[in-house]
Protein: Gamma-glutamylaminecyclotransferase
Organism: Stegastes partitus
Amino acid sequence: MRQMSPAAAVGRILCSSVKVRSPSSILMTHVFVYGTLKKGQPNYFRMLDAANGKSEFLGSALTVEKFPLVIAGKYGIPFMLNIPGQGHRVHGEIYRVDDQMLKFLDDFESVPTMYQRVGVKLEVKEWVGGGEAAPSPGSITEAFVYNTTTYQPDWPSLRCFDSYDAFGDHGFKYTYREERD
């Protein structure tokens, strides 16, 4: 039998615990979004498009660990760098998604070349989702997040944010995917 490293074992435990069964017995997954997929952001409409799959807003949260959330590249894209312990605790939203939406998000986030989908621990700020035991504010839950280990050498030294807003006063213009060259 092949031995699993302690880090891989923790990752397997963390990632396997974010799947839940909905009342209709469809396997659902929790996903934490921190960038353009949040409510009010340029790609939020993709979370609502039934052709992509099902998603349900569950609540708001922030990462337990600090991560660098940077805006980088000529298209003003937000990236959460997979460098735990640096940056800030990142604010975002938790969604329950079906397998079809999860596959869409993997494709949309260019997994595994641009982003990777990994488990992350989150502190619940507010929970509005139904259909399962609601965690109380301040409690810890888990979800998948799209972060990156593939980035330019100067990205860790860029200005870090604790929250992303495409329309904020950070001086970066987000370019929609359809408008990129």
User: Anything to note?
Assistant: The chain has three helices and eight strands. The chain has a mean pLDDT of 86.
